[in-house]
Recover the amino acids of this structure.
């Protein structure tokens, strides 16, 4: 009973914030005479109103995405122009009600969790460099005795230098979460660090091959992961460029029973521009997976041929595929070498009053804390659409299939799905309200024992109400 009371109290708090902001907005609209409006400086080119939600009619002029096809980041529709450097803080409150976690002993029993988060975004631009940071961190208070009170953090950072022919980038993605990052916060603002909205610097994430894979739901307890990347690009001709990158990532778990890993990647590629929209590329990538307390080690070498198409503001497409050679330190079936194929695609497409994104990857991964190396297929889809002047909707779907790279024929296989959706509504320049639903489901060909419960199927459902606010932007220069 206390769980339901707690959720009702938390929901009442969100509703009170929702209502009070609405009433204040209404009073401002109806009061006469109205005071002179306080204008924010134009920070982003083409952004007519400096609010956190980019309401209907707010458009942003985009510059072409010049990141190399063989680089480590996901392609984008373009980057907004910057007029000023600025930073802005904010906070977020969310209240969730969820069915029993995937790794708990009880098969039925709803619990509630309240999350209080501080958000921070920074965009600093110089003549030949740019630094962008998005960070969210806070505490969670749960009625679930297994999860208890905890905290979570997420960070995204990109620093870029441009010296004409030379470009140098440093990127970092960090998270400390109570559960897997695969599908975390789908349909809500919890999924992305920072203050959100068009004033939060856009940070194209690292591609899936360069971050620790976490697409098996029934791993135990909180975990933290970090992926750091350094990338250099050199233009050798008007149509050709060379890219070299190195990444190092870790996956750690607070509770025992999971396989912790260190992953190192090195890649080098060549890009050739065919037209203003089309590019061809070829890439060699080496990945080394090492496991704490486990003698197994996996080395993976891939040669991939790539095609990219970018039309600013309309489409960003990347296709890649090629042979894959995997070497095991500890032989499996009297063999240490395997040859297979790898490939995938990344697509972002602008729709009328919305956009969609689709990604697919077939490759060797670190094993998601369950395997010492895994054959992984992963598919993710997202759709966002402005329903009206005030309301926006989002849809998120993901699927993954993981099997051990050591014994693929007799391995346990995990099929994991998540589906989530959400509605959001802005209030003035600085606040918004969201409601989201997420469902996770996992099936295996063998029974999985999690916290004393053994089953081939696990299901989780979650409903989240959230309120987010940030200050006006503070201009640095």
């Amino acid at each position: 009973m206390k769980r339901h009371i707690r959720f009702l109290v938390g929901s009442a708090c969100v509703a009170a914030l929702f209502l009070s902001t609405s009433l204040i907005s209404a009073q401002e609209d109806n009061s006469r005479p109205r005071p002179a409006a306080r204008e924010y400086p134009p920070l982003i080119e083409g952004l007519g109103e400096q609010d956190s939600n980019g309401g209907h009619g707010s458009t942003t002029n985009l510059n072409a995405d010049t990141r190399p096809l063989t680089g480590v980041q996901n392609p984008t529709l373009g980057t907004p122009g910057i007029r000023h450097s600025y930073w802005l803080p904010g906070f977020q409150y969310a209240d969730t009600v969820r069915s029993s976690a995937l790794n708990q002993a009880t098969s039925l029993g709803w619990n509630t969790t309240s999350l209080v988060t501080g958000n921070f975004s920074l965009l600093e631009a110089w003549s030949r460099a740019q630094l962008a940071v998005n960070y969210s961190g806070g505490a969670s208070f749960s009625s679930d005795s297994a999860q208890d009170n905890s905290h979570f953090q997420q960070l995204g950072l990109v620093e870029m230098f441009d010296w004409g022919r030379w470009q140098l980038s440093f990127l970092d993605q960090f998270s400390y979460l109570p559960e897997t990052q695969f599908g975390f916060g789908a349909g809500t603002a919890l999924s992305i660090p920072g203050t959100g909205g068009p004033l939060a610097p856009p940070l194209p994430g690292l591609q899936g091959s360069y971050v620790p894979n976490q697409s098996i739901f029934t791993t135990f307890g909180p975990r933290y992961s970090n992926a750091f990347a350094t990338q250099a690009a050199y233009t050798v001709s008007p149509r050709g460029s060379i890219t070299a990158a190195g990444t190092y990532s870790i996956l750690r778990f607070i509770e025992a029973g999971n396989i912790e890993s260190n992953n190192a990647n090195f890649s080098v590629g060549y890009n050739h521009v065919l037209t203003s929209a089309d590019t061809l590329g070829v890439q060699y990538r080496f990945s080394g997976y090492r496991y704490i307390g486990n003698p197994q080690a996996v080395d993976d070498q891939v040669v991939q041929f790539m095609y990219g198409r970018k039309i600013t503001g309309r489409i960003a497409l990347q296709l890649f595929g090629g042979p894959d050679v995997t070497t095991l330190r500890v032989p499996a079936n009297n063999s240490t070498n395997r040859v297979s194929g790898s490939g995938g695609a990344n697509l972002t497409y602008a729709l009328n009053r919305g956009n969609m994104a689709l990604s697919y990857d077939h490759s060797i991964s670190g094993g998601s804390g369950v395997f010492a190396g895994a054959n992984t297929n992963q598919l993710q889809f997202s759709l966002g659409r402005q329903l009206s002047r005030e309301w926006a909707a989002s849809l998120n779907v993901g699927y993954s299939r993981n099997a051990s790279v050591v014994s693929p024929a007799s391995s346990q296989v995990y099929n994991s799905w998540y589906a989530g959706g959400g509605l959001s509504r802005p209030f003035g320049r600085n606040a918004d309200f969201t409601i989201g639903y997420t469902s996770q489901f996992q099936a295996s060909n063998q029974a999985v024992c999690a916290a004393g419960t053994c089953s081939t199927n696990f299901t989780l459902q979650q409903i989240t109400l959230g309120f987010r606010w940030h200050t006006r932007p503070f201009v640095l220069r």
About this structure: The longest strand covers residues 431-450. The first helix runs from residue 2 to 30. The chain has a mean pLDDT of 85. The helical segments are 2-30.
